[in-house]
Amino acid sequence: MLWSPIVVGTLLVVGMAPFPTGDAEVGFGKADITPDLDRHVAWMAGYRNDLRATGVHDPLWARAVVLRDGSTMIAMVSVDLIGLQREAVLEARARLPEYDHVLVSSTHTHEGPDVIGLWGPSPAESGVDPAYVEFVVEQVVAAVRSAESTLAPARAEYGTAEARALILDSRLPTVRDSILRAVRFTSPDGEPLGLLLQFSNHPESLGPDNPLITADFPYYTIAALEDRYGVPVAYFSGAVGGLMTNPPEFAAPDGTVLASGTFEFAEAYGEAVAAVFDDALAGAEPIALSPIVTSAAPVLIPMTNPGYRLGRALGVLTRDAFTWTGRPDSAGSPVPAEQTEGDIAIETEVAYLRLGDLHIAGIPGEVYPELIYGAYQSPAEPNADFPKAPTEPTLVGMLPASTFMIFGLANDEVGYIIPKRQWDEVAPFAYDIDGGQYGERNSVGAEVAPILMQALRERVGEVTTR
Distance between CA atoms of 181 and 404, rounded to whole angstroms? Predict the structure, then answer.
C-alpha cells in the first residue's frame, strides 16, 4: 500500500512573493479531560508500574486553537497526557470531518493516566482504560468545537526568549533546546485574544511516587499567564528528548530553595517559565497568519525494540503493526500481535503547518534537540553503535524561516527520536558509561530519526517548493 501526503491550502511556488497578510481568524477553547476516579482506572504514567492515582491535585485539559483562513480551517490541540496514541487522534479527526487538519499534541506530563499501556499494575498488564481514552477523544472534539465558536479576525506577533537556566540535559552529549517560543493573537484593533506557548522540558517535577493527577509545571505556567493577560493560553511541548529535564533544585521568588519532587517546586518552576514567556513577548514582532497550508503523511518506522514487540504480544501495547518493506511510505501485510520476530513496522505521522510566516513542525515523539539544530557531535563517540552514520536533516535546515514552533508528541508518541550516530545499545558504551545511557529502551529503534526527519523534510518541501 502506498501512502500519499495530504496537502491543503494554497501552495507557495518558488519565486513568488512572501505570503501576504490575509483575513485569518483564531479561536480558543478547552475541555476538561481529568479522569473521574470513580469511573476511570488511572495508572500514573511515566515512571513505573503499579502506581494507581488516588486523587486529583489539579485538572487536566484539552486546549484547542482553531485557525481559519477563507475555506481552510485547522485545529491544534494540546492535551495534558503522557502521549495520546495515533489511533485516538485519528478517531478525533473522524469526528471533525470539515477540518483540513487536526493536530493533537501531548504535553507529556508524568502525572496523568496511562494512555499508552506501559505503566499498568505490572509490566505484563496494560495500564490503559479504553473508556478513559474514549472520553479524551470526546473532549478533544469538544475543545475544538468550543474554540471554533469563538473564531474572530486576528493578527499575531511572534517572539522568543532564552531559558537556559531552567533546563538540564540528562544525556551526553549536552545539547539543549532552551528557547521558549511565543505567539500573541490580537484583534485587528489590538484587543487580546489568546496566547500560544512552546517550551521544551519534561513535565516531571513531582517524581516517581506522586499518586495525585496533575498537569505538573505547565498548570502553573498557564495559570500565571492567564491571570496576567486575561486570555486563554495553549501550551505545547517541544524537543524534550535527550532528555530535557528540570534542575534538581529551584529558588522560589522569596529566595527559598526548593527541591524537585514537590508541588511547591512545580509552582515556582512553572511561574519562572511564565516569566520567560513575558520576555519573549517583550521582543515579539508582527507576523502574517495567512494563507494556511498544511502537509501531513503517514510514515512507517521499523520496530526493533524487543520490549515493544513483547508488549504487543502481551497486549500491553495494542498498536497495529505491519511487515517492514524497507520503505517508509509502503505498509506490508498486517503482523499479528503474537509475532515478535521478523521485520515489523508501525505507522505514525509527521506534519508541517505553515500559517503565513509561522512554521510548525509536528513530530510524533520525544525528539532530540540535535535533530532541531544540527548540533551533532563530530566525530561521533567511537563506542556508539553507528558512529559513521550520516547525520539527519535538521529542522532549522529545512524550514524557510526562523519563526517556527516545534510540537513534539504530535499526533502520536513513539518514544525517543535519537540521532542514529548517537545510538548506543551494545557494549562497550560511549563515554565509558557502564550499562549505557537512558533512551534506547524507550525508542522504537535506531532508524526512527533518519526516517522521520527525512519525511518531515518532504512535508516541508511539499509546501515550499511547488
Answer: 8
